[in-house]
Amino acid sequence: MxxxxxxxxxxxxxxxxxxxxxxxxxxxxxxxxxGGLFFGLINKASLLVDRSNADIWVGxxxxxxxxxxxxxxxxxxxxxxxxxxxxxxxxxxxxxGEMSLPNGSFENVTLVGVGETTNLGRAYSIVDGPADxxxxxxxxxxxxxxxxxxxxxxxxxxxxVNGRRVRVAGKSNGILSFLVTPYVFTNxxxxxxxxxxxxxxxxxxxxxxxxxxxxxxxxxxxxxxxxDVSAMTADQYASVSINFWMTRxxxxxxxxxxxxxxxxxxxxxxxxxxxxxxxxxxSEYATLRAIGLSERELLSILTFQSAMVAILGIVxxxxxxxxxxxLLSTPRATIEIPFLLYxxxxxxxxxxxxxxxxxxxxxxxxxxxxxxxxx
Amino acid sequence: MTSTHQPSEFATSSVPPVWVDEQQMQNDQRQTTFAxxxxxxxxxxxxxxxxxxxxxxxxxxxxxxxxxxxxxxxGSGKSTLLSILGLLLTPDAGELRLxxxxxxxLGEVERTLIRRERIGFVFQRFQLIDGLDATDNVAIPLTxxxxxxxxxxxxANELLCRIGLEDxxxxxxxxxxxxxxxxxxxxxxVIRQPELILADEPTAALDSQSGQSVMxxxxxxxxxxxxxxxxxxxxxxxxxYADRICEMENGRFK
Lengths: 375, 254
Fold this sequence. Notes:
The complex is a heterodimer of chains A (375) and B (254).
Chain A: H1 2-12, H2 14-42, H3 47-50, E1 56-60, E2 72-73, H4 76-81, E3 86-100, E4 106-114, E5 126-128, E6 139-143, H5 147-150, E7 158-161, E8 164-172, E9 183-187, H6 188-195, E10 201-202, E11 204-209, H7 215-225, E12 229-233, H8 234-249, H9 251-280, H10 282-290, H11 295-328, H12 339-356, H13 358-365
Parallel strand pairs in A: 4-9, 6-8
Antiparallel strand pairs in A: 1-11, 1-12, 2-10, 3-4, 3-11, 5-8, 6-9, 7-8
Helix pairs in contact in A: 1-11, 2-9, 2-11, 2-12, 9-12, 9-13, 11-12, 11-13
Chain B: E1 4-6, E2 18-20, H1 22-30, E3 34-47, E4 50-63, E5 67-71, H2 78-85, E6 93-98, E7 101-102, H3 108-118, E8 119-122, H4 134-144, H5 149-162, H6 178-190, E9 196-200, H7 208-224, E10 228-232, E11 244-249, E12 252-253
Parallel strand pairs in B: 5-10, 5-11, 8-9, 9-10
Antiparallel strand pairs in B: 1-2, 1-11, 3-4, 3-6, 6-7, 11-12
Helix pairs in contact in B: 4-5, 4-6, 6-7
């Protein structure tokens, strides 16, 4: 009956129920969307790594961000290739340059040079233009999402990078840099030409492992053989790249603070609503206490009602979040909500709702059943 | 000295109550079993930093099946006495026995259990739970006792049918008249067949006809279940339902 009582009284006052639900839904949506935007943004910091098709990244010792590479000797690829368990190795160049724009101005770009005969480092997939676009001389691939920055280059259009002619041969979609500089993919050798950098050096060595080989063990072996390099699995380097931006920009703190603010607002709304609901029912609670409901039973009613508000709010909030994600998520502003974020958010907000029920509980504890006679 | 009214007949009489003296009443009561015995009950409230006595050494007995009305002007201590008799308040001094068991020194948990198991309350403003229909309101005491919801609803429905509310079993309090609400509240108070019913101005919010009807029902049910009843009232139109009337003034019986 207690549950029936809790349920029926909760749903009887729909206005208060809706107010409470709005608080929870607001928190759920805010935390998930905020978190999703954060993950969407921060994951761009490791996009090149995530989509590189490589198992191991080898760079200069202390490498900390995929976009900021320090050169290493290109010949070390043969040393890496000689490590047991390594299937193949390709060099990758990541350099900065300037692309000319039709209006006479320039846009800074991040040039990514990939080998011609391998898919290692080819983080893009072409959505406009021929699949073998990079096989053409001076070809570059740009991303559709950078059209605004690059003034909408057309397929076949000529541009200049660092004063040398290039031809836009294809377009990818959704390969965006965490930096403001667009990624421009081209041949490995073309990058050397465009940047005039030392051909004996490269930014990274990307290795693919044989099936079943322990990547961490191979990394240790590489670092033993080449003390001046860092070797990381793709997952490790993705984390390192993400952490770079998280820790050096205070991004995590900013998003975390905003998310906590959302939680706090939700907490206040839920707590206040539950409190208002209790205040409206003080007379009923006093009556129940008078006719024999114990304080503990009353608390269980309150907790049950909070849990109901929480569960309903979380379910509706999740639905709205998924809808908003489908509606608003774009490659430029990706809303990427991992399952763990949904789970953590639900658990956290559920706990907060129960905590929020403590506010009305403090009032309920002071209910004197004698007041039922004075109503 | 306690003054009491003694109506010549209970429940149906319209003859004015007869005044009897305390000694005679006590002699009569010794021959009965007491549902409730209170002696030397005192209670003070602190108002504006000063202690103000509300009850001043009240002695009170209630026989099994007896219906006693507490009357008197506002502030005379009727409701406070009712609260103490119903274990809603603890007295500052005095002794209280419910069915021979001393209950004045019990803790909150025990008092709650006794209220649940042995006392039924009828309130002036009905105090029904807004979100529950009539059936569920009546079923509350049974379910508090651990009876499952279906069974307690069945018993509640039977009682509601008996008191003429079969068409209102699924009605919410907001859709019933005050008289109907008070009948539901009455059903809630008696459904567990408690030893004691305490009613605080049960007809104050009702018109004359509804008030009479509710009191008739109260007497009918309490007589059937042999329940002792204490009614606080200002309403002289229902005095004839009392077995005995105790008038209070300044925290004492007159």
